[in-house]
Amino acid sequence: MATLTTEEKVKIRNGMERKAAQEGIPVQWIKDAVNDAAQAIEDLIINNATAISNAIDAASQPHGITFTADEKKWLVAFTVLMKHNRDIV
User: Fold this and answer.
1) 89: pLDDT confidence band, cut at 50, 70 and 90?
2) Which of 23, 27, 46, 66 is 20 to 30 Å from 9 by CA-CA measure?
3) Residue 29 has pLDDT above 70, yes or no
4) Under a CB-based contact definition with an 8 Å cutoff, are residues 26 and 20 in contact?
5) Which band of pLDDT confidence, cut at 50, 70 and 90, is reported for residue 1?
6) Does 27 map to a domain?
7) Are 62 and 33 within 8 A, CB to CB?
8) Contact at 8 Å (CB) between 20 and 27?
9) What is the domain extent for residue 55?
């Protein structure tokens, strides 16, 4: 399991607070709640890595493509980045 670092948790909390301020939403959460929720998301991604890999394989194999482990990591990261851009930016 990948554990988020203190620095990563700070970045996540700061991002949440910036977005709340931009949206005019008062911050009603506490640091530990954000930290634990972010870790739960990280754990969910890690714990489901095989299912994600299998889903990528199922989607790409009809095209005659098999992504490497690194390419799958990139694909997941860029997809999550796109979701970030759609939901946050």
Assistant:
1) confident
2) 23
3) yes
4) yes
5) low
6) yes
7) no
8) yes
9) 6-87
What proportion of the chain, given as a percentage, has pLDDT over 90? Answer: 96
What single-letter DSSP state applies at residue 62? Answer: G
Residue 68 makes CB contacts below 8 A (sequence gap 6+) with none
**CA dist 63 → 9, 56, 67 (Å):** 39, 12, 11
Instruction: For residues 86 and 8, give the distance between their C-alpha atoms in angstroms, rounded to a whole number.
Output: 21
Average pLDDT rounded to a whole number, residues 22-43: 96
Residue 10, CA distances (Å) to 15, 34, 39 in order: 8, 10, 12
33 Cα distance to chain centroid: 17
In the chain, the number of structural domains is 1
For the four alpha carbons of 59, 81, 76 and 71, in that order, the dihedral sign comes to positive
Is 18 contained in some domain?
A: yes
Is residue 25 included in any domain, yes or no? yes
1 found inside a domain: no
